[in-house]
Amino acid sequence: MYGNSRGQVGVVVAILMVSLVVAVIVIIQVYYVPNWMKEKEAEHMDTVANQFSNLKFSIDLQTLAQIDVPITNSITLGSKELPYFISARAFGSLNVLPPANSNFTMSLTASGKELRSFSESDITLLTDVADITAFELVLDTLENGDIYNVSIDGMKRLEVQVIGDGPYRIDLETINDSTIFDQPIATELPMGTQGYRINLLNPDYKFVNQVLPYIDTPFDISVTSSTSNGEFDISGHQYQNATISFSTPNGLGTIQYQSENAYFVDQTYTYQGGAVIISQSDGNAITSPPFFSASNATTQHVFNMSLVDVRGLPGKRSAGGYGTYAIRTNYSSTEYLEFKASSVTLTITTDYPEAWERYLNTTLTASGMQQDVDYNLTIENHQLVVLLHGPSVDSADITFSLQKITVYAQVGPGWVS
Fold it and tell me: Which residues partner with 169 through β-bridges?
């Protein structure tokens, strides 16, 4: 009997030990493994967020430099399962979405003055000039006492005078409140000299570096002369009356990562128009902002905006599953639009209008502008309508600069140049 009792106790102890081990394994498998995997997938989502931030930084560098120098970044798809325990592996997909599939477009309308290039000869008056790229005085004939004046916003800035009866001397005076340059710029010019050109933007004459930089733009230029023996040739950019319209009817391309998590909430990271947006079941937000700036002044509002259009190459637009994949980007081209207007309507069509609305509202408020006074934001379905107002109702006191930048992207090895 005594021996049999000890044998029964041993069996019971063995069963209890096995039951304890099984219970511990079950507890680990049912409770701890999901939590560990959830943390692991959350860390992976943080990694993807950092990788998309680095991708945006690379594209920002390329667009600022505007040089076709490829940059390669890495995006990690999915995370590994735990060894020795039953767990599911996370997967992901990376896609360069073409404009037709991105559901991202932008349009802009305004009535005002658009910045355009000009080139004029024999001018007397130019209004709303933004900058001067070339400015010459062409003297067809030299005669003693001929005087040529250049005034900006009613104030004389340059005076050129021909002195002598052959040979001739040409004197130039530059004025910025007071005279800052006054001396001969040509001497011993023989009689019969024709087509003599004077580059008024020559740095030695101090007009281009000590007068123009201190004049508020836009400005008016008027020229007068005591003779018809010469004329001014000028090129630059000028605000001209126009109905401003900008749109991307075919859409703008984007880069998107979509997770397929087994434990953590699924997230989507989208590089859209220059911004990085995170989206999940309970909402979306911009994590890395686009290039948009707003400046609120007493007499005018100034806005600057850059849009990035990402174009993929056939066969190099997607990757899926698990692993780390390279994505290579390179700068292609830039389109510019600058104008002045009293009001501007900006319409953004996107899957994430709430994220754009929060970002723009925060940025505009931080600049000192007031909602319902200087701007209005309205969401209609997948469209965010932004209405910008100038300080004065009737004046073209909004200056808006827009850049549309095209960047090419390809996923995976085997680059196509």
Answer: 163
Longest dimension (CA), the chain: 146
Q: Between the CA atoms of 362, 367, 371 and 377, what dihedral angle is there, to the nearest 10 degrees? A: -50
Last residue of a domain, one of 204, 237, 270: 237
Specify if 14 maps to a domain.
no
Edge to edge, the sheet with strand 283-288 lists 283-288, 275-280, 268-272, 254-260, 91-97, 318-321
In contact, 354 and 284? CB cutoff 8 Å:
yes
Residues spanned by the domain of 79: 34-104+251-411
Burial letters for 353-365: b for 16+ Cβ neighbours within 10 Å, e otherwise? Answer: bebbbbbbeebbe
Domain end (from 237, 267, 287) = 237
Residue 190's beta-bridge partner residues? Answer: none
The answer to the question of residue 9 being in a domain is no
pLDDT beneath 50, residues of the chain: 1
Please say whether the dihedral angle defined by the alpha carbons of residues 176, 181, 182 and 184, taken in this order, is positive or negative.
negative
The answer to whether the Cα torsion of 350, 355, 357, 361 is positive or negative is negative
Contact 116, 338 (CB under 8 A): no
Do residues 401 and 293 share a domain? yes
pLDDT of residue 15: 77
Helix (H) or strand (E) holding 325: strand 323-349
* pTM score of the predicted model: 0.81
User: CB-based burial of residue 302 (10 Å sphere; 0-12 exposed, 13-18 middle, 19+ buried)?
Assistant: middle
Neighbours of 56 (CB within 10 A): 21
273 and 160 co-located in one domain: no
